[in-house]
Amino acid sequence: MESMSYMTVSRRWASYLRAKTGVSREKEMVLAYAADIIIINLLNLAAILLIGFLLGILPATIAILATLFLFRHTAGGAHSDSPWRCACITILSTTLMSLGAILFSKYSKIGLDIFSLIALLLSFTALVTLAPVDNPAAPIVSPVRRKKLKRYALVVFLLAAAITLILRDSVWELAQVVRASLALCLLWVSFMLTGPGHQLMHLIDRTFILRQGGEKDEGFG
């Protein structure tokens, strides 16, 4: 971690804690890294919600964010090598999915039914066969934990499926928007579990690294 570059506020916070607690230099770097991740995630969340609000797609954005959060912490998926790139990808993908949800929600009920069914079938298949997909920087070494994460991921899937079914005949004005949001999010989560999803992240990382002169960032998205 010595070679990593941290934000000034993270370094200062970690240095302050080291001075107060007397932890080692290595622990200070760990604290700085943790602070970076927390700050980036908060900025990421704020940016996504602000964009959703400004574009008038906030309900779809919130539905997608909640679904992504639950699946990311159970099913896992492809990561970028940099937390900053991971944040940018999340902002872009969430915004595009939210806009897509608004578009798909205008389809006929049968059209949205078919789209939701395809998303549910594909995501169930991906979860059963691939989840959980770990991060090389933090591999899942325990078979017991791996089984638990798969079960949790399937529970989240069942929750998403139940919500999709309940909202089908709901009179709530945002029901179809949320249904479309869940379907798109399930497809994205499934894609991130697959080899092509990992290849896409690798391509993005590789493109960025080449433009930066070949120096690879540490960390994870």
Find the count of extended strands (DSSP E, 2+ residues).
Answer: 0
Strand content: under 5%
User: How would you describe the shape?
Assistant: globular
> Which blocks of ≥5 consecutive residues have pLDDT under 50?
214-221
**Average pLDDT metric:** 88
Percent range for helical residues? over 70%
Question: What is the distance, rounded to the nearest whole angstrom, between the alpha carbons of the first and last residues?
Answer: 16 Å
Rg on CA atoms, Å:
19 Å
Task: Describe it.
The protein has 8 helices and no strands. The protein has helices spanning 8-21, 25-54, 58-72, 83-104, 109-130, 143-168, 175-193, 195-211. Helices cover 75% and strands 0% of the residues. Mean pLDDT is 88; it is low at 214-221. With 221 residues, the protein is mainly alpha-helical.
Describe what is shown at a glance.
With 221 residues, this protein is mostly helical.
Brief descriptors of the model:
221 residues; mainly alpha; 8 helices; disordered C terminus
Which SSEs are present, and which pair or pack?
Layout: H1 8-21, H2 25-54, H3 58-72, H4 83-104, H5 109-130, H6 143-168, H7 175-193, H8 195-211
Helix pairs in contact: 1-2, 2-3, 2-4, 3-4, 3-7, 4-7, 5-6, 5-7, 6-7
